[in-house]
Specification:
About 30% of the residues lie in helices and about 25% in strands. The protein starts with a strand and ends with a strand. Bound molecules: flavin-adenine dinucleotide.
């Protein structure tokens, strides 16, 4: 008996929408279920609204800096409700574009929560009916870890709520040291909020190059963001005056915060998905295990994006969707490629990075050349701002191949994207050197490094 659809996608976020559209364009009968807003985390409560808030948070320094260039700007005031309303308008516009694109491709959008209901069957919860499909793709994403072990966690916000606060807090404590924690710290601090980060590790932004992490910490402190490492919140309570008080493990107290934001990781959306009805069990981190082609343990069920706990980034979810389409609908088995995925941290200062950190390169290669430079960007010379930026190349001394490129400072995110091309292609330091500089830019330092700042030979660091 013919089933209702060739493909049923659960979750209309970055990965699900791309897969649904491409499958429909390939001639498949496709439906997609969404329990919230179309566009998913990235569009509705992630990358896009975050970047808009990041832009907003830069103006304070821009106004201050303009004086050194001869401008006098009257007293600047900021209105949080205006920012949030304008941001919401843009997000609504984007959501309608996503809806229109699904309709144009011929994908049927079902605005309901969906769950597996046996092999080839999906239950549409708000309608109460069940549909059938030859193939099912789970793309339900992830959500902030609510950190239930923390006493008083229900008084805290996560990134979801941070986008919709009625008013801007005067003081915020952010627990976490990942990119979401530091990006929101930059946003709130830039908008004038007294901001403290509490992080359990020895330095924020683990997995990034240590030189970047150190400079990032120092620059944040210079700007006035407090970072407390080796600490965790053990209790949050509401005080008589309505403000929050957070107790630290070390016995200290972070008192009188208007908001405490938890940014302690994200958990895959698997609850109530009916995975047990088809015999799919979860991995140790609560994600859906898949093979190299994003197929689950069940033949006709695939999973992509954050719900699989591989690399929680929008372009990765989209790439996994494209590989799924090639594999399943174009008969071209394609594994997602996770090598040299460039990323940015839109904090203040900004970070752009691709390839191996120095520490990881040291584990893999005996002989390395490290090139790095730290300086005050030209723009800062007239503003009096002391912010520094750092550019770094990690090079395999045996092959001359550039293994990693890292930058912190203005424009770092954009640089990271462009650096990803040569690094992914396997460019050598000689290729970088053969490239004419664009002058005057900060990025020109990447093609003008003359001698290594550090040599590693046989695993030992030699003086440069
Ligand atoms: C604050 C923040 C900032 C971020 N910034 C960046 C960034 O700068 N760059 C970057 O690359 N990534 C960023 N990310 C990560 C990025 O948003 C995610 O990696 C990406 O959205 C994952 O896509 P996905 O398709 O797996 O899931 P999602 O986009 O989350 O989509 C999943 C969808 O499934 C729906 N759903 C869940 N369960 C069901 C169900 N049972 N039935 C029907 N629908 C369901 C959800 O409502 C959701 O719409 C950020 C994330 C956050 C939270």
């Amino acid at each position: 008996m013919a089933r209702d659809y060739d493909l049923f996608v659960i979750g209309a976020g970055s990965g699900g929408v791309r897969a649904a559209r491409r499958a429909a364009e390939a001639g498949a009968r496709v439906a997609i279920a969404e329990s919230d807003r179309v566009g998913g985390t990235c569009v509705i409560r992630g990358c896009v609204p975050k970047k808009l808030l990041v832009y907003a948070s830069h103006f304070r320094e821009d106004f201050e800096d303009s004086a050194g260039y001869g401008w006098s700007v009257g007293p600047a005031t900021f209105d949080w409700p205006t920012l949030i309303a304008n941001k919401d308008k843009e997000i609504a516009r984007l959501e309608s574009v996503y809806r229109a694109n699904l309709a144009k491709a011929g994908v049927e959008l079902l605005e309901t929560r969906a769950a597996l209901d046996g092999p080839h069957s999906v239950k549409l919860e708000s309608v109460g009916s069940t549909v059938t499909a030859d193939r099912i793709l789970i793309a339900t994403g992830s959500r902030p870890n609510p950190h239930r072990a923390l006493k008083g966690h229900e008084l805290c916000i996560t990134s979801n709520e941070a986008f919709h606060l009625d008013r801007l807090p005067q003081k915020i404590i952010i627990e976490g040291g990942g990119y979401i924690a530091v990006e929101f710290a930059g946003i709130f601090h830039g908008l004038g909020v007294d901001t403290t980060i509490v992080y359990r590790g020895r330095e924020v932004l683990s997995r990034f190059d240590m030189d970047l992490r150190r400079l990032f910490h120092a620059e944040c402190q210079n700007k006035g963001i407090r970072i407390i490492c080796h600490e965790v919140l053990t209790k949050v309570e509401r005080q008589a005056d309505g403000r929050l008080r957070g107790e630290l493990m070390g016995g200290g107290v972070e008192a009188n915060a208007d908001e405490i934001m938890l940014a302690v990781g994200r958990v895959p959306n698997v609850e109530g998905l009916g995975l047990e009805s088809v015999g799919i069990s979860l991995d140790k981190r609560g994600g859906i295990p898949v093979d190299d082609y994003s197929q689950t343990s069940v033949d006709h069920i695939w999973a992509i994006g954050d719900v699989t706990n591989r690399m929680q980034l929008t372009p990765v979810a989209i790439h996994e969707a494209m590989c799924f389409i090639d594999t399943v609908f174009h008969d071209r088995p394609t594994k997602p490629d996770y090598d040299c995925v460039a990323t940015a941290v839109f904090a203040q200062p900004e970070i752009g990075t691709v390839g191996l950190t120095e520490d990881v390169a040291r584990e893999r290669c005996k002989n390395l050349d490290i090139y790095k430079t730290a300086f005050r960007p030209l723009k800062g010379t007239l503003t009096g701002r002391s912010d520094r930026m750092l550019l770094k190349l990690v090079v395999d001394a045996d092959t001359d191949r550039v293994l990693g490129a890292h930058v912190i400072g203005p424009g770092a995110g954009e640089m990271g994207q462009l650096l990803a091309i040569p690094v992914k292609m396997g460019a050598t330091k000689a290729d970088f050197d053969a490239t004419m500089a664009v002058h005057p830019t900060a990025a020109e330092e990447f093609v003008t490094f003359s001698a290594p700042t550090e040599r590693v030979r046989g695993g030992k660091t030699l003086a440069a």
